[in-house]
Specification:
86 residues, alpha+beta, 2 strands, cell division
Length: 86
């Protein structure tokens, strides 16, 4: 099986440049970086004393929390769809 071609881009997140490599489109990777950057800025407004490392961890915790809530919603919708299909 052939390995998918990897895209490489540079992105700015919270004032730092990072190289991203992935099989997703560069547009997708830029969107991910933009969302992380926005979330870090949002959290830093409410917690201005956090250093970058703590801010990054808090951003990750918030992001995983959002992910788990969405995953639970999807599972509930899938169960409802199965029930309706009967």
């Amino acid at each position: 099986m052939a390995e998918q071609e990897k895209n490489r881009i540079s992105v700015d997140i919270y004032g730092h440049t990072y190289k991203m490599v992935g099989t997703e489109s560069t547009g997708h990777m830029r969107l991910v970086a933009s969302i992380v950057d926005d979330k870090m800025k949002e959290i830093s407004i409410h917690n201005p004393s956090l250093d970058t490392a703590k801010l990054a961890v808090l951003t990750a915790v918030n992001t995983v929390n959002d992910f788990l809530k969405l995953k639970e919603q999807v599972e509930k919708l899938e169960e409802e769809l199965k029930r309706l299909k009967g």
